[in-house]
Amino acid sequence: MKKQHLPEKICIVCERPFTWRKKWASNWEEVRYCSERCRRNK
């Protein structure tokens, strides 16, 4: 899959779009934050 075709979501904290990462492959449906920093500042 090419980078321009990766799925995207909007972070619920900073409201910026972020793309799929390989480390999230097993739980992409549950990912809500773009980074650890946003997760801590919820």
Structure characterization notes:
There is one protein chain. A hairpin with a 6-residue loop joins strand 1 and strand 2 (17-19). The protein has one domain. It has one helix spanning 36-40; strands at 8-10, 17-19. The mean pLDDT is 92. Helix content is 12%, strand content 14%. It has 1 helix and 2 strands; from the N terminus they run ββα. The protein has a two-stranded antiparallel ribbon with strand order 1-2. The protein is α+β, with helices and mostly antiparallel strands and 42 residues long. Pfam families: DUF2256. This is DUF2256 domain-containing protein. It comes from Lutimonas vermicola.
Summarize the helices and strands and which ones pair or pack.
Elements: E1 8-10, E2 17-19, H1 36-40
Antiparallel strand pairs: 1-2
Characteristics of this structure?
alpha+beta, two-stranded antiparallel sheet, 2 strands, globular, UCP037205, DUF2256 domain-containing protein
